[in-house]
């Protein structure tokens, strides 16, 4: 009797399973299109118009979270755009786009599309494309160095955060200069320290400038470092 009951229970279980809807795994595809509107400043050096046969380097500058939004003039509060507004001249073009999203990460793919357009439309030396960013823009600069390892001749990052595993994907032939304040409460100093330590262990050409007692606004001292721009202009990709 027990055996017969067991058989009945098994049959009921099988019937129950057969009556339940089956899961499905479907294969399909969709082509997506993302449109990003980027306002930007583009600076030309004083001799760009007179030296019509010469190709010039270009510096891509990515601002921090505080300058995001739709007011392009906000970019003049920090970094190279601020120095340009104060009258400083640079020996290369400077492209400074604005992240239109106050609380979103940089759309790095859109930034690269803009950079490609500017490079193609002007007399730019493709072996001397430089990259820099501060805070949120510094994090985006690390990301660009990973996603486009063969595009930049040199990179300077100011108080930017980055996952240490990024180190393995960055071009070893690209010189890097990192700046950070030791008392940064927004993006911990350890973000830069850990990344620099890893890069140095792996044999990268990386410089690290530490500002003792300085908080998150280490970009003030970093971008007023005259040697930074001399360092940039000396770099050129070999490939």
TrEMBL record:
Keywords: Signal. InterPro entries: AB_hydrolase_fold, Dienelactn_hydro, Plant_Biomass_Hydrol_Est. GO terms for molecular function: hydrolase activity. The keyword Signal applies. The keyword Signal applies. SUPFAM superfamilies: alpha/beta-Hydrolases. It holds the Pfam family DLH. Residues 116-216 form the Dienelactone hydrolase domain. This is Prolyl oligopeptidase family serine peptidase. The lineage of its organism: Bacteria, Pseudomonadati, Bacteroidota, Flavobacteriia, Flavobacteriales.
């Amino acid at each position: 009797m027990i055996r017969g009951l067991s058989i009945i229970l098994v049959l009921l279980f099988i019937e129950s399973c057969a009556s339940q809807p089956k899961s499905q795994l479907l294969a399909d595809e969709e082509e997506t299109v993302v449109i990003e509107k980027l306002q930007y400043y583009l600076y030309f050096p004083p001799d760009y118009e007179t030296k019509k046969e010469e190709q010039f380097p270009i510096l891509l500058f990515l601002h921090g979270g505080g300058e995001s939004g739709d007011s392009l003039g906000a970019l003049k509060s920090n970094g190279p755009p601020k120095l340009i507004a104060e009258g400083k001249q640079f020996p290369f073009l400077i492209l400074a786009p604005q992240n239109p999203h106050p609380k979103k990460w940089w759309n790095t793919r859109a930034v690269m599309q803009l950079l490609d357009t500017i490079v193609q439309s002007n007399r730019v030396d493709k072996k001397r494309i430089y990259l820099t960013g501060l805070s949120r823009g510094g994090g985006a600069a690390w990301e660009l160095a990973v996603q486009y390892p063969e595009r930049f001749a040199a990179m300077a990052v100011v108080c930017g955060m980055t996952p240490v595993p990024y180190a393995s994907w960055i071009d070893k032939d690209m010189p890097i200069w990192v700046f950070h304040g030791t008392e940064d409460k927004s993006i911990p100093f350890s973000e830069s320290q850990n990344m620099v330590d890893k890069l140095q262990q792996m044999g990268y050409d990386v410089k690290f400038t530490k500002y003792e007692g300085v908080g998150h606004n280490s970009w003030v001292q970093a971008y007023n470092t005259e040697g930074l721009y001399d360092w940039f202009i000396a770099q050129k990709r070999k490939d």
